[in-house]
Design brief:
Porin, two-stranded antiparallel ribbon, 2 helices, 16-stranded antiparallel barrel
Length: 415
């Protein structure tokens, strides 16, 4: 990895020195070397082999009553080391032009230590308005996110995704309007594994949005002044779980769709050494944003196997408080509740965490910050309540709790 990293740095550096000779262009090269050491007391819902941590898995008892998921685990990684370049270009009419390309070594799926695009976009800025085209943070992630050491950045309470999008922003006085059309690339919606009616085994795939032919839409407004951001947004997504249904007799064409409307509100306040931020989300089928949710099957056609759906709703809220600069203690609290579907779903549910009733996470951390360096330690307690019984709308009636304790140590060199 060291050779690959040095080669890319040399390539970007040389490219910058060559292209900077072009009139009207300027390049800023940046990056970080990040190391993460973590330990959990049990198995968890996670990605990147545990670096992106969500919540503890439910107990899985063997014939002797031992919990197969009650085994501790930990590892050490440098996968979130990253490189980037910011480009400013010549004027395009009355618009200032800029671009960003940023990569890390996270890879994709279960393949690690390979280059992955984080941000890649160009931006046209007319002063009061700006148009961004490319991949960057999903608008539901937005400008307000927890400042914590865990790489999940508050997920599943905080929507987490970088997505291809066309985003327009208009600013007037202290108000900013954001409108965006969003597609999916690395963070995907959940759908059925097969075309058989009643299938509740799931997979993440590009197909559910591609066959929908409709992007996600976001509309939001923010009030901004020095030290304060406050705003809210509305999000709509519509996917196609299946276009074919495989019954015992034949394969039928089916026209299926599940649409969800979500809302969020956020606030961030900074003054001198203080940071206080919070966000609340009422989400419907936001599985592409690293959170809990999905949809249930309300009906199945007896002949073709065509299915009707009702999205599952979740409510999540987080609060983040930090104080200091050189020595910076911080607290994070998150709570999520599964609200079930709006209709009865007698044929089961598809999604992530559909058997959860609620989640709570409390985190305490301390970081030491000096120019170009950050060292930190974080302790996180997560309590997951799993449903024992569910009503007709897939909402838990009663539940049991599962605990995980997590420790993260981080060293970060930024350049």
């Amino acid at each position: 990895m060291k050779k690959v990293f040095m080669s890319l740095a040399l390539l970007v550096g040389v490219s910058g020195s060559v292209f900077a000779q072009k009139k009207g262009f300027d390049y800023k090269f940046y990056g970080q070397v990040r190391t993460d050491l973590f330990y959990n007391t049990r198995s968890n819902s996670e990605t990147v082999d545990g670096l992106f941590y969500m919540y503890p898995l439910d107990e899985n008892l063997d014939p002797n009553g031992h919990d197969l998921n009650g085994v501790g685990n930990g590892n050490f990684y440098t996968l979130y080391t990253r490189l980037g370049v910011d480009v400013t270009g010549p004027m395009l009419g009355k618009a200032k032009t800029s671009a960003k390309v940023e990569v890390d070594f996270r890879g994709s799926g279960t393949t690690y230590s390979l280059f992955r695009i984080r941000h890649v976009y160009f931006n046209l800025d007319w002063g009061k308005s700006a148009l961004l085209v490319g991949q960057t943070w999903h608008p539901l992630y937005g400008d307000v996110a927890p400042e914590i050491l865990n790489l999940n950045m508050g997920a599943p309470y905080q929507p987490f995704s970088r997505a291809p999008q066309i985003r327009y922003r208009f600013t007037s006085n202290n108000f900013m309007l954001t409108a965006a059309a969003i597609w999916q690339s690395q963070y995907l919606s959940v759908g059925p594994k097969t075309n058989k009616p009643g299938e509740t085994s799931t997979q993440k795939s590009q197909e559910f949005m591609k066959k929908s032919c409709v992007p996600e839409f976001y509309l939001g407004v923010d009030y901004k002044r020095p030290g304060l951001i406050a705003g809210a947004g509305l999000h709509v997504s519509s996917i196609t779980p299946r276009t074919q249904s495989e019954t015992e007799d034949a394969v039928y064409f089916v026209n299926e769709r599940v649409t969800g409307i979500s809302g969020e509100a956020h606030v961030k306040y900074t003054k001198e050494n203080w940071l206080v931020s919070a966000k609340t989300v009422l989400g419907t089928n936001l599985t592409q944003t690293s959170t809990v949710g999905g949809y249930g099957i309300t009906s199945i056609d007896e002949v073709t196997g065509k299915q009707q759906y009702s999205p599952l709703r979740t409510s999540s809220t987080w609060v983040n408080v930090a104080y200091g600069k050189k020595w910076r203690p911080a607290l994070f609290f998150g709570y999520l509740k599964n609200l079930g579907a709006t209709k009865e779903v007698p044929y089961g549910a598809l999604g992530t965490g559909t058997t959860l009733d609620q989640l709570f996470t409390g985190t305490a951390e301390l970081t030491y910050n000096i120019p170009h360096w950050k060292f930190g330690a974080e302790y996180s307690l997560c309590n997951a309540w799993y449903g024992d019984e569910f009503d007709a709308k897939a909402k838990a009636i009663n539940s049991h709790s599962i605990l995980n304790h997590r420790i993260v140590l981080v060293a970060l060199f930024q350049f």
